[in-house]
């Protein structure tokens, strides 16, 4: 309503309210390296496309005369209240698209009460992001370091800084084949905004001399040694339980048997995600993986979803197919690229308002009312 009323007064929003068009205009702002690092996927891009196409195979079947004028979209996931079933997905090195990086994102999320999931690979320190979040809800995403002491140190810092829930990303124990980044010789860890290395956290700066530019190849090698290649299995999970008091969520689940194993291992939640199509090219669309997983384990742990959410209708469909909440990835990064904190707010509010209207116009009043009955499959 606010946007329409401003429109009547002759004002237009500073940039588009449509997440796909927001990506297109971000291309005009950013250098090809960072733009494609964010926009690109693994291999041929088949999984990234499939993520979007999967949403088109489901259609909402609106209901009439059901008094949906007043709605309450709020929900609580693992003890975290939120105004709508939406969180900001963990996205690393945000300073490659805007100098304010994760601090801007934290402020925008906090202003809207939307939980932010902070990436281990954040450009800003855990403590600085916590401060920027103020009283806003915040979760922490772990890239599981190979050194157990480093892992415990990161977990302790996150807990001390007030991060309530741990999201453990399993699908990126090494970086995938990403032709866009290879063709641009672009590793975001090398070229950031302003500094050669877009990290201020001691974890990433340790071992760097005063002239980081010269040390970059060594630093990158060190990070690779710290975070990739571990031969971990399900037996490793109790270690995290031992060192984290809050809820634990496994991110990157696509197979129903893995979802069952997560529940058997006593995990509190999972994110059905293929990392936005950035890891296994040719993998199943994340939305196609969701219904069987929600059916199998939805009553044993919280099932969250990401990969491909761009509109309010997408949020609606994922919730109706069994997700308790969804994580938004690239769209908020495009908002950040356009206008820092204000841009993240704009991108997020656009999706939230679209979701609110879609729920109401379809005849529903709350996320809990959205079930598979609200949808039909068209192909
Ligand atoms: C990511 N993602 C991600 N995931 C994670 O667990 N830790 C991280 O540091 C990152 N970093 C990251 C950077 C960029 C540029 C992107 C686009 C994505 C994956 C992210 O959390 C989420 O799974 C996807 O972005 C969801 O897909 P959509 O919404 O972008 O299609």
From TrEMBL:
<feature type="binding site">
    <location>
        <begin position="329"/>
        <end position="330"/>
    </location>
    <ligand>
        <name>FMN</name>
    </ligand>
</feature>
<dbReference type="GO" id="GO:0010181">
    <property type="term" value="F:FMN binding"/>
</dbReference>
<feature type="binding site">
    <location>
        <begin position="90"/>
        <end position="92"/>
    </location>
    <ligand>
        <name>FMN</name>
    </ligand>
</feature>
<dbReference type="InterPro" id="IPR037396">
    <property type="entry name" value="FMN_HAD"/>
</dbReference>
<dbReference type="Pfam" id="PF01070">
    <property type="entry name" value="FMN_dh"/>
</dbReference>
<feature type="binding site">
    <location>
        <position position="251"/>
    </location>
    <ligand>
        <name>glyoxylate</name>
    </ligand>
</feature>
<feature type="binding site">
    <location>
        <position position="275"/>
    </location>
    <ligand>
        <name>glyoxylate</name>
    </ligand>
</feature>
<dbReference type="InterPro" id="IPR008259">
    <property type="entry name" value="FMN_hydac_DH_AS"/>
</dbReference>
<feature type="binding site">
    <location>
        <position position="278"/>
    </location>
    <ligand>
        <name>glyoxylate</name>
    </ligand>
</feature>
<feature type="binding site">
    <location>
        <position position="143"/>
    </location>
    <ligand>
        <name>glyoxylate</name>
    </ligand>
</feature>
<keyword id="KW-0288">FMN</keyword>
<keyword id="KW-0285">Flavoprotein</keyword>
<keyword id="KW-0413">Isomerase</keyword>
<dbReference type="InterPro" id="IPR037350">
    <property type="entry name" value="LMO_FMN"/>
</dbReference>
<dbReference type="InterPro" id="IPR013785">
    <property type="entry name" value="Aldolase_TIM"/>
</dbReference>
<feature type="binding site">
    <location>
        <position position="273"/>
    </location>
    <ligand>
        <name>FMN</name>
    </ligand>
</feature>
<feature type="active site" description="Proton acceptor">
    <location>
        <position position="275"/>
    </location>
</feature>
<keyword id="KW-0560">Oxidoreductase</keyword>
<protein>
    <submittedName>
        <fullName>FMN-dependent dehydrogenase, includes L-lactate dehydrogenase and type II isopentenyl diphosphate isomerase</fullName>
    </submittedName>
</protein>
<dbReference type="GO" id="GO:0016491">
    <property type="term" value="F:oxidoreductase activity"/>
</dbReference>
<dbReference type="InterPro" id="IPR012133">
    <property type="entry name" value="Alpha-hydoxy_acid_DH_FMN"/>
</dbReference>
<feature type="binding site">
    <location>
        <position position="119"/>
    </location>
    <ligand>
        <name>FMN</name>
    </ligand>
</feature>
<feature type="binding site">
    <location>
        <position position="169"/>
    </location>
    <ligand>
        <name>FMN</name>
    </ligand>
</feature>
<feature type="domain" description="FMN hydroxy acid dehydrogenase">
    <location>
        <begin position="11"/>
        <end position="379"/>
    </location>
</feature>
<feature type="binding site">
    <location>
        <position position="178"/>
    </location>
    <ligand>
        <name>glyoxylate</name>
    </ligand>
</feature>
<comment type="similarity">
    <text>Belongs to the FMN-dependent alpha-hydroxy acid dehydrogenase family.</text>
</comment>
<feature type="binding site">
    <location>
        <position position="141"/>
    </location>
    <ligand>
        <name>FMN</name>
    </ligand>
</feature>
<feature type="binding site">
    <location>
        <begin position="306"/>
        <end position="310"/>
    </location>
    <ligand>
        <name>FMN</name>
    </ligand>
</feature>
<dbReference type="GO" id="GO:0016853">
    <property type="term" value="F:isomerase activity"/>
</dbReference>
<feature type="binding site">
    <location>
        <position position="37"/>
    </location>
    <ligand>
        <name>glyoxylate</name>
    </ligand>
</feature>
<dbReference type="InterPro" id="IPR000262">
    <property type="entry name" value="FMN-dep_DH"/>
</dbReference>
